[in-house]
Amino acid sequence: MFETSFLPEVRGRWNRLQQKLQSEGADGLWISSNVNIYYLSGRVFSGYIYLPAEGDACFFVRRPVGLAGDRVFYIRKPEDVPALLAGIGVTMPRVLMLESDSISYGEYQRYAKVFANSEVRNGSVLLRATRAVKTDYELSQLRASGERHAEVYRTIPALYRPGMTDLELSVEIERASRLRGSLGIFRIAGQSMEIFAGSVLAGDNADAPSPYDFAMGGGGLDRSLPVGCDGTLLSSGMSVMVDMGGNFTGYMTDMTRVFSVGHLSDEAYRAHEVALAMQREMTAMVRPGVAAAELYNLCLDMAKSAGLGEYFMGHRQQAGFVGHGVGIEINEAPVLAPRSKDILSEGMVFAFEPKFVIPGTGAVGIENTFAVTSDGVEKLTLCDESILPLGV
Amino acid sequence: MFETSFLPEVRGRWNRLQQKLQSEGADGLWISSNVNIYYLSGRVFSGYIYLPAEGDACFFVRRPVGLAGDRVFYIRKPEDVPALLAGIGVTMPRVLMLESDSISYGEYQRYAKVFANSEVRNGSVLLRATRAVKTDYELSQLRASGERHAEVYRTIPALYRPGMTDLELSVEIERASRLRGSLGIFRIAGQSMEIFAGSVLAGDNADAPSPYDFAMGGGGLDRSLPVGCDGTLLSSGMSVMVDMGGNFTGYMTDMTRVFSVGHLSDEAYRAHEVALAMQREMTAMVRPGVAAAELYNLCLDMAKSAGLGEYFMGHRQQAGFVGHGVGIEINEAPVLAPRSKDILSEGMVFAFEPKFVIPGTGAVGIENTFAVTSDGVEKLTLCDESILPLGV
User: Fold this and answer.
1) Which residues from B are below 8 Å from A33, CB to CB?
2) Which of chain A's termini has less CB crowding within 10 Å, N or C?
């Protein structure tokens, strides 16, 4: 299942969950989603993990063939599990937690039947809270992702050729990422958000409203995926906002940089400076115990003070947040939004993305991924933050 | 919401669903997933569709701003819906169908509360059956996707450079696809399967078992996404199986071709011919009324007769199907598997992918997307089917 050297790492994750299970009076947690299987075992497999409130996790595998280790059992279906648990002396839970917010109603019903004598409760909140605080190992994965992410971004000005469309530039960035080992995949919790690889927004396409809950929109190439680049020809006076995925390790960093074709409007440069000022203020303010909502409010106040409120986080349609947790998925806790109840703690990792859409120019602003330290933040995505001219 | 000219198309889809709702005694269907919102409106939006068993669909939109049309309402939350339905004289359903197999338990509970006086039933089966039979418009989208998919594949031999890895070749194919307008995204029903862009399998990596329920595996680049290319250096005597997504229109075609570095083993060429023979036999057999399971059994028998049973659909790990429906998602009905109950009917579209893994050489075989016609099949992915040498 995993190398022996990895056992302390996953056991640490189990223990943190187990403390929460115990404090909520639950006896076990049943995991079936790929992201949480990865979190609790260090790899994706088809099957299930049962984590009792005390003791080691049990792994029930359908595929791939060839996994071995303590408490690893091959099964055909979840209904095989109770007999296997009994066989190793693990008692069935009186109170069982399921991933209620991420598994389908059909799956939930099936597992509830497998654990027919258990009272079933929602374990999604507890999983989300646990995953929000990264371990040292997870931080190292995020740092590694951030480094390669930044490497790719440094090549962007040289990828530009006059006459390119936003799609063509996006494709060259996608290629550069993949050649540096990007896994490509963009994991998003929930079903409502979809995107491929990331987005490149040029000029007024940045102001095209999208159905998705990303910070920025874009019309997209097709009504089946209305987000991101739309085929705009990159032309003088346009800002080009690049917000492409940095998923090099199973842990994603999030990062945005803005480029220009020729010179942009003064308003665009000014708004960009305001976004950078927001980042400085946020950096000065963050420490364990700070409310995520405060960071949003800080930015909104600064946007309004600068007379840029109507362009903050979009113009025709405005996003209601300025940052979000990242990790295995792109939309983890904490959420930096006005009604967020999240409180920052050491080990949390979040993307901070104050952005503006300036009509006639496009999107400007910044996004970096930060880890909360014992007394501040560590920036994981280090790369020039000014508006760089393309092709120079 | 959509152009008036598109109304007959979506109304046709509503009508087919409404007939099924009526025959099952249901009064309405509540849709919240992106794929079914796209199916029933022709575009993705954030919100919901209520389809009564009679009359036009109602659209409840959260985002994007700016949609308009008959029965289009902007809402903040699903709890706003009952009052809006009452306002236009639509009665609340006695029996309501939900997407039980695709929405989360949490969502299901929320909608069940919104329709508190309705009996709630599983509408997923009915949606899957309806979407399995494509309309003429959907077939035109699939044909367009297939044409561009084939165009990309024709460029593959020239994309090869000696010394490339499987990842590097994959990246060049991804680039060629995107430059021809591929949306990139790979929609898969359910949560258990994940892939980025598709897979390139070189040599023995084709025999690395994967957790996912794809026809072939591959070790992948990372334990967080163990499928597809693994960094293998493309070397003489290896087969290179390319199975990349063809999602150019919101409707995906599925297509596999095999290439060689130098010359392959005789066994590999022989197995490839058996796969092509399977395709010929399948083509001769398909017509409305044929059981999907028969097509699987046909192939399994042919594989055994050829003495290739142990290599059919994998070797260390074998997939239990030889084809699957495609459309908005890559795993629609019908399923060509031994226990499938699906019966082919006119308008169904499926990928047929008889493949073999030959140890020491790699994967061989074929995959094309076919539409069931009134008396046979139409192939949607037309491109040379022999094993083509790379770099020639």
Assistant:
1) 191
2) C
